[in-house]
Amino acid sequence: MKRVSSDVLVLTFLTFNFFRNVSASIHEYKDEQFIPKSNAFFFHGGTEGLYASKSSSNASPNKPLEGKTFIRFEDVVFLRTRESANAKNEMQSRTGLIETIILEVRDRERIGDAFAKSNALCCTPKLAQEKFCTVGEVIIQHNPDNPLWPLRIQTFFEGKNQEANMLPTTVEINSTGMYYLYYMFCDPELKGTIIRGRTVWKNPDGYLPGRMVPLMTFYGLASLAYLVLGLFWFLRFVQFWKDVIQLHYQITAVIALGMSEMALWYFEYANLNSTGSRPMVITIWAVTMTAVKKTLSRVLLLVVSMGYGVVWPTLGGVTSKVFLLALMYFIVMEALELVEHLGSINDFSRKTKIYLVLPVVFLDASFILWIFSSLSKTLEKLQMRKSMAKLDLYRKFTNSLAIFVLISIAWVGYELYFNASDPLSELWRISWIIPAFWSLLAFSLLAVVCILWAPSSNPTRYAYSGETIDDYDEEAISLTTGVRVISDSGTKLERKEKKASVSTDLATDQREDLEEDKRE
């Protein structure tokens, strides 16, 4: 039971910090505080998936780190309180110890006294007597297959100095895995110590964290997929430009936004891979593009479900409600995306994320309910009008949408299972499929809409054509080509009336001329 409790302690220790990781490969420390845990104090310096270094035979003499995976410590400084420094003897060479510990997630049980069957992270006199450790140091049980790991780097305070500078160090990584970095100390007199500096984490092909490497390739391919879809849509649009309706312009906007979104994320990841930092301008543009695209995609599905341009020429009085829902969704989605992708995630707690995710979930549910409610009314209206072509179109759309919703529900279940079964991200090499799937699903649904509502030479199969005048809202201004049917009919009637009037006038003139001739 004690061994199990020790494992739970370390698991909780790592899980707590997994959600405080930094997304970029340059981890900045700005007067960060150490947190007490068990009988130790620690600061989480970073977590990333790293691939093993490539063969050294390919390295260039001028670039010894090319193709290498490493963690480099730059200008790392520890500052203890003045009271702690003054309490030490100036003649002593070592008056305080800070330990830097790097471990692969599979070695998490080797931190602490798992083999000594207690819950301590630091070595105690009792444990020292049992020859498990050195008093005042973190307990580490080294891996028999790799005796140097978990890796320990020690930095000492000297005399009454308040600062202790960590020597510039580069640690090469020769095994693929999820790596954690911690700074720890066991001396209670060092309480209040802060850390400054930064660490640089690099994979063999760049600074992009291991979990993001497949996503960069995915975003590149996704932008090409949107380009192909946009080309297909553009050709149809140009070919039948006289028969397009307002709905086609909205579909065009969503395609353009999707292509821009994927391209921006690709370039943002490419820049991170080459520099190790995330440019705020590109990230803000990518985040905003994502929020706008997601909002317009949902609005597009909603107005299509309402029968806009097919059953009704306008949205009528619900336009303001649709706009209000879209505005709220954009605001909460923008806030969530900004917090997730900008700055350091070290300051981003799980509670804050829940507060931002819940409004998005609520508004998504509102969109889904409104969409299916509108689809039901649209199908009923088309059945009453006996518009078989349009009814068949909307049945196909309803069936497709239902399939996508079922797939989404199933994937949400899988995502919850994936996150619950992998709290420490040991499956980091396949975790990219979670966000990639949602992007792929959105693209597939947009492609279905493009196929069903593609411009054609027979626009009446989906365009509003004013079948019943009673359904027409006289106060609304029509945005579709269907009104031209009524307008053209009225123009023809006016022309016939004018021709009849002219004929009548000519006959009257002729009779008057004949009567005058008879009088003469």
TrEMBL record:
Presence of keyword Transit peptide: no
Domain GOST seven transmembrane span(s) in chain numbering: 214-459
Regions that span the bilayer: 212-235, 247-267, 279-296, 308-332, 352-372, 393-412, 432-454
Topology of this chain in the membrane: Multi-pass membrane protein
Stretches assigned to coiled coil: none
Compartments where found: Membrane
Signal peptide coordinates: 1-24
Principal cellular location given in the protein's record: membrane
GO cellular component: Golgi apparatus; membrane
The organism's place on the tree of life at top rank: Eukaryota
Biased composition (Basic and acidic residues): 491-500, 508-520
Designated name of the protein: GOST seven transmembrane domain-containing protein
Species for this entry: Solanum bulbocastanum
